[in-house]
């Protein structure tokens, strides 16, 4: 993983601002040894001999930061680390036009305000009962069986049902929307050009799906998330149609993928660690703290930033237009930020992480995500107080902008 590959970086092929000793042959979309665990494979790059910023020739060539401090600095500083392109490879990322994620301050502020208004803590409290009932219904459907495939029977159902209700879209449409989301976050293809085609096709799929829905809800008094956004104002003016498409497609992308993946990572851990389950069973009041510790331990997002101007950073020269990938795993599992970071400690006083990002683009959906995680833990343990990962389980991990894991069989005594 950490050796220079002459076949990929022949003599003279490197950009002139990339020192040879910063080149590592790493493909974070097809990560070596990911079958042993996503976080475990990623953290092979956080070693004393590996610099805090390295360069890979894969996926069009880009930088990668490998330390908590660098993750935070890049995410917190839109100048020089712009969100104009946040998806790799760059050739694909230039097709990604969702807002406000691709806007820098101050332009993004008005759009972010609209999103905050529909995802703030008060709004989450208003839907908490219905979210809880969704979780209960799913768990009770298989609790008496003594087993389930957690990924397909819960993780791919619960956050999706919650979000589809929030936007008032038919649940039957979720599979195609989830397919679009997957092709944006983990685009198919072996070259940047092929990945760009996959991503552009998925974005068009979102827009074609949403266009008639937005037209139908504009000017009406619906209380769903789409209606509230499409009828919002930006700087005192009605939101234009293309901007509403961008924002709502962005929300669908986030709402239908990330928590789905994260929950499966959590249940693999709990299924292997009955003592941690017992702690939550004995004291359910610690569930919110436990959820935060699990967020720290299992980060799965690795989006990117584009260098807005030539700048010196961590001993290298970054050129305008360079791309930098920012894996959040290098924050929560960095021992400079958290003592004994591999250990899940529900009594950790202050779990520090950037699992929801940082800076102006810190995840607007974090209140919803925290609520979904806490509700899942509480309602699951109330109904299935002891469980284990299946004896023949072989979780299937995949890396990308958002890592995933599938095939999570859980068992319990009935």
From TrEMBL:
Which Gene Ontology terms cover its molecular function?
A: heme binding; iron ion binding; monooxygenase activity; oxidoreductase activity, acting on paired donors, with incorporation or reduction of molecular oxygen
Query: Which keywords appear in this protein's UniProt record, sorted alphabetically?
Result: Heme, Iron, Metal-binding, Monooxygenase, Oxidoreductase
Q: Which InterPro entries match?
A: Cyt_P450 (IPR001128), Cyt_P450_B (IPR002397), Cyt_P450_CS (IPR017972), Cyt_P450_sf (IPR036396)
Q: Tell me the PROSITE patterns matching this sequence.
A: CYTOCHROME_P450
Q: Which domain of life is it from?
A: Bacteria
Q: Which family does it belong to?
A: Belongs to the cytochrome P450 family.
Quote the protein name from its UniProt record.
Cytochrome P450
Q: Origin organism of this chain?
A: Aurantiacibacter zhengii
